[in-house]
Amino acid sequence: MILIAAAWIGLLLLGGGLALDRVLSNAITRNFDDSLNYVLTAMVASAEIGPAGEVLLNRPLGDQRFLEPNSGLYYQISGKGFE
Fold it and tell me: What's the CA gap between 5 and 37, in Å, rounded?
């Protein structure tokens, strides 16, 4: 009887752990994707095409982490002939 109860407890703990992992992974991924979508929208809204065809940002990005060295957040805008 104790072995059956221990097996059920183990099975339920394993199932709960897997469900919790899936829910948290999806929430973290969705949050990160929403953050990137916000930054991309802000970049597109502040971008202009210069006379030589280069992309100019007419105002700085709202997220200061892009300006900090070694912050882990970087962006690059490039096109054909511009690097």
Answer: 48
The answer to whether 79 and 57 have CB atoms below 8 angstroms apart is no
pTM greater than 0.90? no
Amino acid identity, residue 26?
N
Residue with tokens 């929430």: 27
Query: What value, to the nearest 5°, has the Cα angle with vertex 77 and ends 36 and 72?
Result: 50
pLDDT in tens, 18-75: 999 999 999 999 999 998 898 889 888 888 888 887 888 888 777 788 888 888 888 8
What is the rounded distance in angstroms from the CA atom of residue 15 to the CA atom of residue 73?
36
CA distance 70 to 65: 9
Q: Are 57 and 47 in contact (CB under 8 A)?
A: yes
